[in-house]
Amino acid sequence: MSTLLDIKSSVLRQVQVCPSFRRRTEQDPGSASADPQEPATGAWKPGDGVEFFAHMRLMLKKGEGRQGLPCLEVPLRSGSPAPPEPVDPSLGLRALAPEEVEMLYEEALYTVLYRAGTMGPDQVDDEEALLSYLQQVFGTSLEEHTEAIERVRKAKAPTYALKVSVMRAKNLLAKDPNGFSDPYCMLGILPASDATREPRAQKEQRFGFRKGSKRGGPLPAKCIQVTEVKSSTLNPVWKEHFLFEIEDVSTDQLHLDIWDHDDDVSLVEACRKLNEVIGLKGMGRYFKQIVKSARANGTAGPTEDHTDDFLGCLNIPVREVPVAGVDRWFKLEPRSSASRVQGHCHLVLKLITTQRDTAMSQRGRSGFLSHLLLLSHLLRLEHSAEEPNSSSWRGELSTPAATILCLHGAQSNLSPLQLAVLHWQVSSRHHQTCTLDYSYLLGLLEDMQAHWEEAPSLPQEQEESLADSLSAFSEFGLQLLRQLRDYFPATNSTAVHRLELLLKCLGKLQLFQPSFEICPFESELNMDIAAALKRGNREWYDRILNDKSPREQPGPQRLPGLVVLADAVYDDLQFCYSVYASLFHSILNVDVFTLTFRQLERLVAEEAWVLTEELSPKMTLEVASGLFELYLTLADLQRFWDSIPGRDSRSLALAGIHAPFLPAVKLWFQVLRDQAKWRLQGAVDMDTLEPVDASSRHSSSAATAGLCLSHIQELWVRLAWPDPAQAQGLGTQLGQDVCEATLFYTELLRKKVDTQPGAAGEAVSEALCVVLNNVELVRKAAGQALKGLAWPEGATGPEGVLPRPLLSCTQALDDDLQREAHTVTAHLTSKMVGDIRKYVQHISLSPDSIQNDEAVAPLMKYLDEKLALLNASLVKGNLSRPWSVFSTQRVRVCPWRA
């Protein structure tokens, strides 16, 4: 705007210094412009170029997402449910025969009817409710249910026993002069007196231990047991385990004394003698008798110097032991009001049955196997009733089911490890027939691992069964990993979370491998996972190849499909890097990205080498276009690998793949040049030489031309031809094509404006302003595109500098465009020059009585209007051009003094 104001100020100053003018005749200078040359149209294939550049935009857009390494988080993920996993009913536990179902039903009824111990707050203590639940899950009629209950009631009651683990004590009283004690425990079962027993309990038939029977465990329940003496401590640790037979669950109680041992008397021998007493009556006095016997057998010193000092006792009714057992600290109690005690004792108690009058027990079915069958039956029915088709079920059993399983596990004397193993075996098998939530399975593995570390031992048969289940689950997981993309797509957040949990489950399996005498895995699980992934990669690749680019088709027909395949490989590797790689590495220490990249890159490289060799002799425009697009993706793959720290694409199978693509690239550049001209021709034909919108000062064809030039520059950047010498030649040719297309566009514009009606009659033609703006926009766009064709790295010249042929071409183009802009400006201002001369002539003819300001007012008004119009119509870079033309025309409004 300041430039245009300078024009107005100059005219005003010249008028003010000339008080009068003489009439003179001036000849308007003029310049004749040659008609633009028609471009040769026989050099390219007819077409409007729209489709070609639309496809080119798609190629560029494809490359936008391939700049550098992909983010480690995929921004666009679907929260929809994960794809359903395959299930196979044959992989579950075998179906039970009707006779076995009946036996299992009887076992469950027996468990409920002869339950013992205290029920927890989260358990069902209603016998009728538990029996009704069993009738429902086993699908029996009321009559059948009633008959079954009667049969079980007539069976012999089980033999009960109390498992006692004396773990430790703390904060005991110090009885010795050194400030410590030498504590030991003496414990046994105190039966109730005959009067307190219920008549029913005396008449009940019971199994009794046969003397001398082989049990392989602790002494029979008719014993008083003694722990080892722990010397000089107030916090003894024993961790000793005992088993006591229970005569009457409702009245018997566990009694435990802790004493300080002060002499060398054999308390164990004293206990053995007292254990020879037949019967349990008067057991209470035997605890005192043991101490007396120990004193009587002492040999060193006075009796008062060799007494076992009392440190505390416990009395725990058997009926108060929880069904699931108890593991806690008990506060020690005094023997009488005169006793002084302190401290606590840590006990683990569990009430079990040692003999059961059920068909399963009589047929030699262990409690382990019975519990497995019962758990499997209840889990399957509970899942079916809750969410039969859901993969989010976490094994939440109903309260009656959990209560019955707790009762049966306790009565069957199953350890926490055995229960954890059974839950895993049943649930993992059930998962393969009806999908469960992997977080539930992971929790089972973690629970089993925790108990395994505490007591890593199982009977051989049970360990073999566990090994089989772990092996079956790992094989199932490997099958899923083979189809990783199908069952755990990277764009589905739910599926990715399931994959993470599955990998954690497989990771837990490896922790058990060193613990087995019989290894559940034939080889390292990591090796199996890598093999499964490789096999899955090949199957996925072959599936796309056979679908999109079958080998039996001719090369030209296979080419588009191979482009699709290469794009699919790149996208897959992006997902692998951004989603799968971190999961596999952090959980299993498996480098899934390197494994997958190496395999897929080699496969697609082999296919590309073979196809280029086949297509080279029959190169056509269509083939060149397809090969060019294929090469762009292959080059993207190489750059992807190079962008990872520590990786070098020279070791890839794709190294040197650019060489056979060079003829196709050269031919495609020719197609690009021709299509660019046709695209510009079509854009100018459709152009109305009006601004695109209120905020723009150029027309639609200039926008199209600028976009085409920008796309050419972006394409060159993406091509990034690796051979420097070849890249220099390609860049020079492409730069010449850019210059040719740009000049072709300006010639089309000049022809277009010459045919516009009324353009010559206006003082300031809007169409000419638009054309001038178009030329300026294209000049800048072409300059930017040519700068992008600088020396590539490694070429024979400084990096970032245009080669000499291209530099000459660029300078010539800029000169041509500047001349074109000057020509358009001359056309634009020619009528203004004539109008200004007329106003000056009117000023020279005005009387001297008229003031200068009044005389020049019409001229100033004209200048205000036209200069404002120019300011509104021209872009900033063009505002100085009218002044340049005025200076060239030497418009003088004051040729001589009056």
From TrEMBL:
An example Gene Ontology biological process: exocytosis
CDD domains found in the cross-reference section: C2A_Munc13-like (cd08676)
Keyword Cytoplasm tagged: no
SUPFAM superfamilies: C2 domain (Calcium/lipid-binding domain, CaLB) (SSF49562)
Coiled coil: none
Record key words, sorted: Exocytosis
InterPro entries: C2_dom, C2_domain_sf, Munc13_1, UNC-13_domain
Ranges for domain MHD1: 628-749
Region (Disordered): 20-46
Superkingdom assignment: Eukaryota
Residue ranges occupied by any C2 domain in the UniProt entry: 141-300
Subcellular location: Late endosome
Cellular component GO terms, alphabetical: late endosome
Family per record: Belongs to the unc-13 family.
Protein name, entry field: BAI1 associated protein 3
